[in-house]
Amino acid sequence: MSRMAITRGISAIMDRCELVHLERVPLDIELLRKQHRAYEKLLIKLGCTLIELPSEDRLPDSVFVEDTAVIFDGFAVITRPGAASRRPETPTIAAVLEPYMELHEVVAPGTLDGGDVLCVDKTVFVGNSSRSNETAVHQLESILSARGYDLRTVGVEHCLHLKSAATWIGKQRLLVNPEWVDISHFSGYELVEVAPSEPSAANTLVLGDIVVHARAFPLTRARMEVLGVHVAPVDISEISKAEGAVTCCSLVFDA
Predict the structure, then answer these.
(1) What one-character DSSP code corresponds to residue 181?
(2) pLDDT the model gives residue 1
């Protein structure tokens, strides 16, 4: 079995990306590409075989492949992103995944972004955000319940997606910003809170025994490391200006 990671190049018009909670600032496209390539190299170093898709220069947000699909054990759900401008991103992702697994899809009027779906073993948390609606949650629950998964809807605020506010960091631990997510839904898990001065630090990507985390958040990284968590920091400062984070830029699965 090998670990695969789908990535997609930086769009030439990424400065037109969708923004909800951040003010628009100029993006340095060359720096974005440099940081994205460094991120891809880290994925390779941590054992991933990359499936590198070319940039989609008509689709400014298309580097954020996480939002186009949610991958489970042996099957995936192709999403219907909440931002209409992002819906043309999904067909190419479906075509890549189809040889590897069974596919399902969210259909209209459902909307779901992959960034709102946090999977911890057989428990699936779905963010009640501006991008994911109740119709899609019901569709996802119908797909998952037949396969033994438990779905829980979680309230989020002040951020784009659930995984902006909570992610799994291994064992029974979640890294959370309790100001952005209703942590009452996470009973049974050890909650590690982000440093108060680093509210955007809750997003992580676990690859084996390593937790990939944005370099910009050293205080939160220290909170994980004191617990014995092995953290690999990566510079995504320019990517974060587009409301991106470390989970956003890849779709990881075992093949």
Answers:
(1) B
(2) 81
Number of Cα atoms under 13 Å in the Cβ half of residue 23: 1
Q: Which CATH number fits the domain that encloses residue 156?
A: 3.75.10.10
- Number of neighbouring beta carbons within 10 Å of residue 199: 17
pTM for this model (two decimals): 0.96
48 is catalytic: no
Q: 113-170, pLDDT tens digit by residue?
A: 999 999 999 999 999 999 999 999 999 999 999 999 999 999 999 999 999 999 999 9
From CA 175, how far away is CA 181, in angstroms rounded? 11
Residue in 36, 161, 213, 249 annotated catalytic: 161
Structural domain harbouring 12: 3-254
Report, as ranges of residue numbers, the positions in the chain whose pLDDT lies below 50: none
Q: Is 248 annotated in the active site?
A: yes
Write down the mean pLDDT value for the chain: 97
C-beta of residue 216 within 8 angstroms of C-beta of residue 238: no
Query: How many domains does the chain fold into?
Result: 1
The whole-angstrom separation of Cα 255 and Cα 240 is 30
Alpha helices for the chain (secondary structure H): 29-45, 90-97, 134-145, 218-225, 237-240
pLDDT at 31: 97
Q: Which of 34, 137, 14 is nearest to 86 (CA)?
A: 14
Which of 17, 48, 248, 249 is catalytic? The answer is 248
